[in-house]
Every structure is written in C-alpha cells, then in structure tokens.
Amino acid sequence: MVGHGAALLLLLLAGWQKVLALVPVRDVDVDLGQNLTLACAEKDALVSTGQSSGVMWVREGREDGQVQRVKVELDGSFELVNVSRDDAGNYSCTLDNDADAVKTRINVRVRTPPPALHNVWVKPSTILANILWEVAGTGGYPIIDFTAEYRLKPSADEEPEDWKPIIPTHIPPNSRQIDVYHLEPNTTYSFRVWATNQLGPGEIVEVEGHTHHSIEELELARHLLAGVENFDTRVWVAAVGIVMGTLMILGLGTCYLLYHECKAPSQLEEQEVIELVPNIILNPGFFDERTERIPQDENSNNQTTTRLNNNTVIQPRRL
C-alpha cells in the first residue's frame, strides 16, 4: 500500500508540473522592502459573469517565514507586505470549484541593491596594490559605480583606524580593478569593495593583502611597463618618423633664415653702388679732387690747398 501511495503521489506531481508548463508565466518586478499585490486574472472574469468562487494562491517552494506577511483580499488578490529577497519565485492561483486547473502563474522578481562581488582578490606590490573583482549580478537595476576603501589591519590590542577612500571615490561601472598607491612596504592592509545601484550600496566584500618587503626597481619597472609585449612597433616607428620630420623642417627653416641674413648686406652694398652712378655722371670731378696738405704757418693757419680737376688751386683764407 505504501508503494502504491508513493507512486500515486509521483503521478499527481508530474501532472501538476505538466499543467504548470502549459500556463504562460507573467513577470512582475518589485523593489526590496515594498508591498506586492498580485491579481488572479480568472477571478475577475468570474465576477463579471456573476459567478462566485474562492481563490487559492500557491507558491512554489514557499518558506514558513512568509506566512505572517501574506494576505488574500476579498477580491482574490494576493498581498505580500515588506518584500524580501526570499520572496522571489513563481506564484499561481486556482479556483476552489476547479482546483485542478491553474488560472494564473506569475514570476515575482525582487530588485535589490547589488549582490556581493565575486572573486575579489588583491595583488600587492611594495608600495602599491591592485584590487580586482568580478560582477555576479546587478540586483535588477544597472550598477551606477563601485567604491573601494582600505586601512591598516589592526593588531589584537589596537583599535582599527578609519577606512580611507581609494581615488576615484566613484569608480566607473565598467571597471573591474583599481590601484592603491602610497602604501608601506612589508605591511598588512585590509581592503573592501562594493557596487551601488539606484536602491543603494550592495554587500561589502573585504579582503587582506600584505605588501612586499623592499622597493625593487625591477618590480616597479615591470608594473609600469605592463603590456609592453603587446605594444605595436609600428606605432613607435610612426612616432619617431613624426619627430624626425619635425626636426628636419625646423633645421631647414633655420638654415634659410641664416642664409637670408647673410645675403642681406651684399644687397645693400649693390644698392649703394647703384646710387653712386648718378653722382658720377652729374659731377665728373667727383673722384678727381686731390688734396694737398702744407704745414701750418706761424699763425696756425691751415694752408691746405685744394686742387681741382682743371688744375685750379684754391688757397686757404689767411687770418
């Protein structure tokens, strides 16, 4: 008899699952902490036709803690007060006079702050650390930003210090890591990070990391040159070509200016020679004047004579 009863129960459960599979599911979203009201669609149809029947709501996998927050109204609607994370799931309603037929099936999705980040770990160096994480879910709303903080790990007899923000305080939602600078070598730090959406900050994940003993230049160079193996040499060649081309243009420009400055005085001399030609034509004796100097007399008279091109001598005036 026990075996036949168990077999009958399995058949009933299998039939119920087939009935549920045939009923379309309607999705309903509700924020954490709000009240939820679900209506049985077939009940409204019965009321409009003048029939009366009771409504029974069933939740798949209902927990005992939900009973105190559940209420079925006179019109057959299902009301759930102060929705929690555990209230998410499938709800269905049936009528008392047709309990074998599911009339309405609703999938309740509870929107919450973001859940805890996954695979949060720290990659420490000597004076810096790199915090990495993965996102498992958004809570129903898009993630606005991430927040990370750090502090020294307190010893057993010390009071923990305040958390220090990691810059930037609002990490972009597409980021999956953040660097922490100005750490002390050979020191243990606590780090925590969380996500935030429009419902507020999510669960905080805290991890620890211990910085290395000493500052090694090779390690710092490795951190600064991370990704060099993937660097495209064509970019470097193009940059060098641009710099060399710029220097060549500057050199040619400097040479042209120097050449122009050196050439300018010769042009000025040619211009002076051209200006002297009219003077020579208008005054043929311009270059034929000769000057003879005679020693001064007892009265200190300047007896310098001037001889023109026509051999006429002009004596200085005596005092």
Automatic annotation (TrEMBL):
GO terms for biological process: anatomical structure morphogenesis; cell differentiation. Residues 293-319 are annotated as: Disordered. The keyword Membrane applies. SMART domains: FN3 (SM00060), IG (SM00409). The chain crosses the membrane at residues 235-259. Coiled coil: none annotated. Keywords: Membrane, Repeat, Signal, Transmembrane, Transmembrane helix. This is Protein turtle homolog A isoform X2. It comes from Cephus cinctus (Wheat stem sawfly). The gene is LOC107267211.
